[in-house]
Amino acid sequence: xSEATVPVAVLDANVLFSASLRHLLIWLAVTEAFDARxxxxxxxxxxQSLLADQPHLDAAKIARTRQLMDIFIPDGLVAGxxxxxxxxxxxxxxxxxxxxxxxxxxxxxxxxxxxxxxxTSVLAALNIEAMHPDAFVGRLLDxxxxxxxxxxxxxxxxxxxxxRSPAEYIAALEMQNMPATAATLRLRLADI
Length: 192
Hints:
Structural class: alpha/beta
Number of domains: 1
Radius of gyration: 16 Å
Number of helices: 9
């Protein structure tokens, strides 16, 4: 692992919805490229949304995935943040719990696909930054290259149905709106 301090980042529900992105983020946390945080409310939101969107999925397997996240990232679950919620103003009041969790656990980053819901004008005063997952993973590849590449290798190795070559893995990232990450990994194709 790099000598640089790893960032603490709260993961919004929308970055946990996609199995592939969720698994990549969890691998990045397991390899200590960053310290991942979430709340029970975030876990509820992504699991309920996923099951509503794809009712054919096995609810027990989704619940097991949630459990495994809490097992593999034992400090990931943030609790006790609720007192911050009424003090916060965001464009979508339903997102205040994510910012409250970030404040409570000392996170410097919120990883979200909904950047407009976390305005820089509000977050800057709190020394918190909202980042799209593509920008976030790209930053980790720059700042924590050993841990991030190890996570990518582990994530790709987990893909068994079907397995993916490095080029196929990168193409899949591009299809998931992760073009900067894909471009960076393309330069490190031999490493993944």
